[in-house]
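Per your request, structure below.
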């Protein structure tokens, strides 16, 4: 197994969990576990995010202590345990417990893996390498929807247990693959294992002076940053690093306020509100969403290091804002409450909103789905990166929890409210992205100087 395969198993496993809305809508699930109320559905989906936030907070300290490599392995093992329990759960209570354990694995694995990818990549492919995370996530999303669509015709509980069985298999592959990952060379330097860092860099980089030059840069950065001392939470929010920390937290929080997980988790509900009334049409429409996301991620996978970071966030954010404002306006005009749900009273409006949802998903996939996480990780100095990225992931999970916990009730009670909220939130994020510096083509060590007082920069080698 390649190094990338070992990591991306975690991304696929997490992304498959994003199709959990399709599982809870299955009649076989309702027959065996019981029909979930809006509150229960919100708790079930969001419990994963709550435990992810808790484990993310600890992941930075863990990866600093035991390495990025073993941090990913720990995430894989926890995910494996959680999905095995999910696949064999007899009732709703055990599913909640399993979801909490799986969330702990995801919070640990995703936080550390993001740092790991940023730290092992060269300058010219750092964006593409980190972008691969989202690429494999959307593959998992598309597969999750279509596996759920195919599985819903199976008799009995196997219809919904099959998805958890597949997730357990992927988590097992991740755990095995993590054993073959190289250590992060920057972590090796941080803990004083210089010779091993040089050997690892020589395997990851072209032959020549590049290895020694990069190693010298890493050592110099850590020396000036007090490499013998682990980063403290107080230091992270100190005067020297408050700009990087605040910007990273903002980007990772507002990535969820674009509303993406509302669409991914609750696609069946959203498409039913736009006019797809049958179970088959709802599942199929959700699967198409996954395909649109997958196809739209490919351009970013190819050209992200040419586009830079600011341009995708700004243009993609403006498109997201436009899609949601128009969708909210159409719901305000044509949306009607029927019992505990919302329906559209215009066939034209139904199809316009369906198209806008697909445009929104595509816009997110090549912009905020890819770039926000990359930028938030690469602007943090090496010694602080694991802890700050863990905190960023906590912010992401917490906002995700609040959004997904309230989404079922929000979608069913307010025809236009969710779309206006996420649209204007994204517009605020676009303004911030317009003001932030570009990091394309810079070494991780030189990026630190973009945020120093007066904008002083160190020339790149």
């Amino acid at each position: 197994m390649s190094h990338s395969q070992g990591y991306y198993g975690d991304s696929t496993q997490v992304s498959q969990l994003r199709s959990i809305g399709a599982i809870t809508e299955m009649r076989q699930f309702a027959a065996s576990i019981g029909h979930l109320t809006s509150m229960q559905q919100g708790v079930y989906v969001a419990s994963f995010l709550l435990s992810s936030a808790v484990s993310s907070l600890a992941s930075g300290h863990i990866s600093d202590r035991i390495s990025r490599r073993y941090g990913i392995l720990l995430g894989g093992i926890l995910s494996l345990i959680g999905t095995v329990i999910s696949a064999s759960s007899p009732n709703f209570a055990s599913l909640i417990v399993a979801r909490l354990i799986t969330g702990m694995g995801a919070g640990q694995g995703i936080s550390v893996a993001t740092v790991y990818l940023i730290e092992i990549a060269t300058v010219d492919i750092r964006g593409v390498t980190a972008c691969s995370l989202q690429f494999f996530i959307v593959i998992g999303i598309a597969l999750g929807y279509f596996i759920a669509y195919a599985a819903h015709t199976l008799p009995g509980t196997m219809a919904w247990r099959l998805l958890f069985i597949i997730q357990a298999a992927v988590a097992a592959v991740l755990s095995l693959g993590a054993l073959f990952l190289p250590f992060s060379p920057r972590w090796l330097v941080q803990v004083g294992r210089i010779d091993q860092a040089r050997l690892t860099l020589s395997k990851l980089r072209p032959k020549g002076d590049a290895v020694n030059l990069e190693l010298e840069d890493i050592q110099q950065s850590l020396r000036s940053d007090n490499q013998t001392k682990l980063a403290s939470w107080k230091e992270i929010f100190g005067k020297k690093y408050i700009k990087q920390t605040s910007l990273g937290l903002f980007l990772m929080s507002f990535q969820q306020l674009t509303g993406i997980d509302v669409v991914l988790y609750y696609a069946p509900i959203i498409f039913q509100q736009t006019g797809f009334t049958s179970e088959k049409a709802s599942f199929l429409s959700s699967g198409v969403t996954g395909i649109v996301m997958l196809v739209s991620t490919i351009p970013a996978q190819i050209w992200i290091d040419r586009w830079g970071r600011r341009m995708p966030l700004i243009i993609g954010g403006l498109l997201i804002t436009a899609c949601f404002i128009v969708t909210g306006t159409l719901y305000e005009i044509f949306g009607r409450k029927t019992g505990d749900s919302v329906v559209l009273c215009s066939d034209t409006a139904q199809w316009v909103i369906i198209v806008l949802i697909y445009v929104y998903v595509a816009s997110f996939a090549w912009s905020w789905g890819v770039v926000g996480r990359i930028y938030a990780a690469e602007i943090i100095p090496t010694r602080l990166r694991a802890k700050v990225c863990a905190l960023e992931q906590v912010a992401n999970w917490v906002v995700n929890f609040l959004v997904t916990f309230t989404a079922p009730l929000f979608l069913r009670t307010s025809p236009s409210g969710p779309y206006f909220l996420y649209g204007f939130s994204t517009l605020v994020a676009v303004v911030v992205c317009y003001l932030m510096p570009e990091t394309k083509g810079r070494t991780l060590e030189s990026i630190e100087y973009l945020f120093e007082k007066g904008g002083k920069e160190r020339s790149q080698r």
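The chain has one domain: 3-455.

Regards,
D.
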